[in-house]
Amino acid sequence: MTADDIAELFTRPDGTFLCARWGRPVAPVIFGLADETLDIFRTVIKAGYAHAGHPITETDPEMGSNLMLFFMRDWDEMDGIPDLEQLTGIEGLPARLKDNQADQYRVFRFDGDGAIRACLCFIRMTGALAEAHPAQLAEALTMRSTLTFARDIVPSPELAALIRVAYNPVLPAAATDPSYALRLAARLAQIEQP
To answer: What angle separates helix 180-192 from helix 157-166, to the nearest 10 degrees?
Structure first.
């Protein structure tokens, strides 16, 4: 994975670059799944963050839970989420998602130093997502919650290695300069050498 490949992963459509990781332990909660699927997701989330070298906890002192995954069949179900606008900081989100015919949406909130403070994932379980194997879907959603990827990613060993590198404590929790991709690429190259 080259520096350009990495930069592309974190460059938004407006051209801004943001690569941020969690700055606090992740306290996940999942809504809208059957118990057997819930167990799969919990196991995959724990494994994903263990691979990154980042802690999972039962509760966040400020928010209770800071990684929230909401599964639904239709975006209208979002109307039942208490204080949705306050939670996301976005007005009229269900209508926007419906208009765009989106099947998922992710919102990050940040600490003062730019590190991830919370991540909210909304998933509409229709079409390809409804057919996905729970473990594969859990892996994809977990990886997408670890860093501020600017576009959808497909899990791969290369991305797993990039996530682990980005969680190296000598690196900053957040970077807005695209040249940061060079640092990540250099560290990736070091671990890929025999």
So the answer is: 120
Domain ranges of the chain: 1-21+153-194, 22-146
Q: Give the chain's count of helices (H) and strands (E).
A: 8, 6
pLDDT tens for the 194 residues of the chain, in order: 999 999 999 999 999 999 999 999 999 999 999 888 999 999 999 999 999 999 999 999 888 999 999 999 999 999 889 889 988 989 999 999 999 999 999 999 999 999 999 999 999 998 777 788 889 999 999 999 999 999 889 999 999 999 999 999 999 999 999 999 999 999 999 886 54
As a CATH number, domain 22-146 is: 3.30.379
Task: Report the 10 Å Cβ neighbour count for 154.
Answer: 9
Angle 167-172-174 from CA coordinates, rounded to 5°? 90
